[in-house]
Structures are given as structure tokens and as C-alpha cells.
Specification:
Elements lengths: L4 H8 L17 E6 L5 E7 L7 H12 L7 E7 L16 E8 L7 H14 L4 E5 L7 H5 L7 E2 L6 E2 L1 E3 L2 E5 L14 H13 L6 E7 L6 H9 L4 E6 L3 H16 L4 E6 L4 E2 L6 E2 L6 H9 L3 E4 L4 H9 L3 H4 L4 H23 L5 H6 L1
The structure holds adenosine-5'-triphosphate (ATP) and magnesium ion.
């Protein structure tokens, strides 16, 4: 006699998602359960983030929970359903965007834009719906790094807002689309605030699992505006291994702390260089900075990205490495970072935010 759908659901009710600790049946992650005539079973389980790093662990718990049923066959099909960050009542912009992840560093030139672009494309190729907001008003570099757009940004029909540009399925908005090439942008804080507000309110982002925000260097107007305008799920802090980078990065970490934006983790960029000719491993910018910072602020070191000329060429040519050479070790570093950051964001959204001290004083 073949097993019933009910007995399968019941056996799986004890299985928890290893990331959230929530039961996969209670949370609705277990989707369709089908039992074929020969008793073999097909299950669909939704993962909370693309490239879910704990999938093998979850699969093992599912198979173990079903073992006593001695099924003749089990086909596990994986779906993706990213949880949406609960909106704060006072921040209801971007209702169709589930999570906003800021890519930040106190310091310039450490690779924020490179990370933003490669992480966004990696998440897209792992099946998520993704957008990039280029919040670097003075030095927008996202459009150049992405190369040729499949659709230019533009105004939609009257009253319908601004359509983002589209690059291989990734929606992008940048001030670069609205200024003359080479023109200097000279704007004060209130104007930056107004422009970012427009990017958040008038751009038709559509349904997105993750909106990646490429922040300018420093701890200035754009960062403050964003944190006031939208509920950021969290930030990824980019640093190089050097102490000079860390000094500025600490300022950024403090700023996010004050703004109650969780740090999802640290990406150490330009970690080391491996000579392609002789294989020699060189730590050009020193070593251990990311790890030190991680211990200091209690945030995970998510990845160490090597110095690799192909990463720089890819940025120049508009062909990011996760697209042009996805199997290379340096592209894999971006995939790893993308999956880890997305997991951190989804986990926070699924389990709810820590109660904010600001809110606590109100109620
Ligand atoms: N891992 C890497 N290997 C080689 N080159 C890299 C790497 N990461 C970034 N670069 C190069 O370093 C330069 C700075 O990177 P990027 O523009 O991403 O930094 P940024 O932090 O966004 O800078 P800014 O503060 O000016 O916005 C670029 O030319 C980029 O191609
Ligand atoms: Mg940049």
C-alpha cells in the first residue's frame, strides 16, 4: 500500500529550516506533495534564498524524517520564495521589494561597485529577482560596469513613473542616465535626498527579491537619506585587508549601528594575489584585516576575494566576471558572497527584526 500525502506531511512536520529554525510545514515552505501509483514521492520545498548554502543539510533532515516510511523513490524539487522584510509603518516605500541590501565601506576604491554588480548578477543567475540602485550620485559606476543595457531607463507613459534600465534581467537606476557624460554633479545634501527619494518612489522597480544599493564612499548624506527613506534589511561591509581601510570602515559600521541597520557580514576584497605564471601567493595589501574587523564587530567574514586582473578588466569592459567566466575561482568568490548575503537578509526577514530600541521607547 502506498503512503498517503497526509502521512508524508506529518512525518515532515518535525523538519526545521536550518537557517530560520522554523518548521518547513508550518512555514509553508513545503509545497506540493505527490505520490505516484508505484508509491514514489515528489516533494517541492521552497528555499528562503538563492544558492541556499544549507541545502544539503535540509535535504538530509528531510530524507531522515521520511526514512521510516520506506518510500520506493523520492524526488526533491527545490523552489525559491524569499521572505519579505516586515515594513515599518513609517517606511512604506518600495512595497514590491522584499529586501534592500546596502553595499558599503567608509573608504573609496575598495570595490563596492564591483561587488554590487557581481553580487546582483550572481543572485540573478541563481534565480532571484534583482535590482541595483546606484546611490553614488557623484561617481556613478554601475552602468559602465554592466555594459550594454537591454533596455534604457526612461520615463514611462505620463504619471507612471520612471522605468529602470534593464541589463540581462537586472533592473538598474543611476544618476548616470540623467547627466551629460563627463559633467560634474554638484549637489547639496537636500538635493541628494530629493533625488534618492525619487529613485525610491517614482521608479517602477517591480517585484524584486533583493535591491542591491551601491553606496558612495564615506558616511554622508546618501547613506543617511537611504536609512531614513527605506527599511534596509542589512549592509555588507567591503574592506581591503589594510589597516588604513579598516579605520574608515569602522566609521561606516558605527553609522549603521546608530541607524539600526544590521551588518550582514564583511567582504574582504583584494585579499591576496596568486601569480598565474608561478603560482606564488602574495598578500599585497597585508593580511587579516577582514578577520580582525569581523572579530571586532561580531559580524561574519563572508568571503575573501582575490586581486585578479580579470575582475578589473570585466568592470572596464562591461562584462563582469560572474557572467564572462562564472566557473573561475574569482567569480565563485562573488557567488559565495551573493549566497551568504542573501541568506543573511532572508534569515532576518523570515525571523523578524530585533526589536528596535527606538520602537521600544514608543510602545
Ligand atoms: N578584486 C579585485 N581585483 C582587481 N581589481 C579590482 C578588484 N576589486 C575592484 N577592483 C578594481 O578596483 C577599482 C575600484 O573598484 P570599485 O570602483 O568597485 O570601488 P568602489 O569602492 O566602488 O570605489 P568608489 O569609492 O570610487 O565608488 C576598479 O578599477 C575595479 O575594477
Ligand atoms: Mg563605487
Amino acid at each position: 500500500m502506498s503512503t498517503s500525502v497526509e502521512s508524508i506531511r506529518s512525518a515532515l512536520s518535525s523538519v526545521n529550516d536550518p537557517a530560520t529554525g522554523h518548521g518547513i510545514v508550518a512555514s509553508g515552505q513545503l509545497g506540493a506533495v505527490e505520490v505516484a501509483d508505484d508509491g514514489s514521492v515528489t516533494l517541492r520545498v521552497d528555499l528562503i534564498s538563492p544558492g541556499f548554502p544549507l541545502r544539503d543539510e535540509l535535504e538530509a533532515s528531510i530524507r531522515e524524517a521520511l526514512q521510516s516510511l520506506s518510500l520506493p523513490g523520492l524526488d526533491l524539487q527545490w523552489g525559491l520564495r524569499v521572505p519579505k522584510k516586515a515594513a515599518r509603518q513609517d517606511l512604506n516605500r518600495l512595497p514590491t521589494v522584499k529586501n534592500v541590501i546596502a553595499i558599503a565601506a567608509g573608504k573609496g576604491g575598495v570595490g563596492k561597485s564591483t561587488v554590487s554588480v557581481n553580487v546582483a548578477l550572481a543572485l540573478r543567475s541563481l534565480g532571484a529577482k534583482v535590482g541595483i540602485l546606484d546611490a553614488d550620485i557623484y561617481g556613478p559606476s554601475v552602468p559602465k560596469m554592466l555594459g550594454k543595457a537591454d533596455r534604457e531607463a526612461g520615463t514611462a507613459t505620463a504619471g507612471e513613473g520612471i522605468a529602470p534600465a534593464l541589463y540581462r534581467g537586472v533592473a538598474v537606476m543611476s544618476v548616470d542616465y540623467f547627466v551629460e557624460p563627463g559633467a560634474a554633479v554638484i549637489w547639496r545634501g537636500p538635493m541628494i535626498h530629493k533625488l534618492l527619494t525619487q529613485f525610491l518612489e517614482d521608479v517602477r522597480w517591480g517585484d524584486l527579491d533583493y535591491l542591491i544599493v551601491d553606496l558612495p564612499p564615506g558616511t554622508g548624506d546618501a547613506q543617511l537619506s537611504l536609512a531614513q527613506l527605506i527599511p534596509l534589511t542589512g549592509s555588507v561591509i567591503v574592506t581591503t585587508p589594510q589597516e588604513v581601510a579598516l579605520i574608515d570602515v569602522r566609521k561606516a559600521v558605527n553609522m549603521f549601528g546608530k541607524l539600526e541597520v544590521p551588518v550582514l557580514g564583511i567582504a574582504e576584497n583584494m585579499s591576496h594575489y596568486r601569480c598565474p605564471a608561478c603560482g606564488h601567493h602574495d598578500e599585497i595589501f597585508g593580511a587579516g584585516g577582514g578577520k580582525r574587523l569581523s572579530e571586532e564587530i561580531g559580524a561574519e567574514l563572508l568571503v575573501q576575494i582575490p586581486i585578479e586582473p580579470a575582475i578589473a578588466f570585466g568592470g572596464e569592459a562591461g562584462t563582469p566576471v560572474v557572467e564572462s567566466n562564472p566557473d573561475s575561482p574569482h567569480a565563485k568568490a562573488f557567488f559565495k558572497l551573493a549566497a551568504a548575503a542573501a541568506l543573511g537578509a532572508s534569515k532576518r526577514s523570515a525571523t523578524g527584526p530585533k526589536r528596535s530600541s527606538l520602537l521600544r521607547t514608543i510602545d
